[in-house]
Write a structure and sequence with these properties.
Layout: E1 2-5, H1 8-29, H2 36-45, H3 49-55, H4 61-69, H5 74-78, E2 88-91
Antiparallel strand pairs: 1-2
């Protein structure tokens, strides 16, 4: 298990991925796409690996699922950047690619 202290960039990335998933759900309902999860995986795996690594993340399925299941709270959104590190983000490490 890899555990990271939350920081502003990691929080924003998590929220961006979750927002992309919500968009994919709407696109699926409109008939623009057939597989919202495949669209999300393509989005996630399309992020530059060096940028992911700088956040402490990787392109594994486990990491993507942890990002999707992470509960962003209003306290996190309201926290100052230096207060964010009291929160933790974790995902199982493994070599399974997205």
């Amino acid at each position: 298990m890899k555990t990271l202290p939350l920081n502003l960039h990691l929080l924003l990335f998590i929220e961006a991925v979750q927002a992309r998933y919500r968009l994919a759900i709407l696109e699926e309902q409109l008939g623009f796409t057939r597989d919202r999860y495949a669209d999300l995986k393509a989005y996630f795996s399309g992020v530059d690996k060096d940028r992911l690594a700088a956040l402490g993340l990787c392109t594994s399925r486990y990491c993507l699922e942890a990002v999707m299941n992470f509960q962003v709270t209003e306290d996190m959104r309201a926290a100052t950047p230096d207060m964010l590190e009291q929160y933790r983000f974790s995902y199982p490490q493994g070599n399974q690619p997205n």
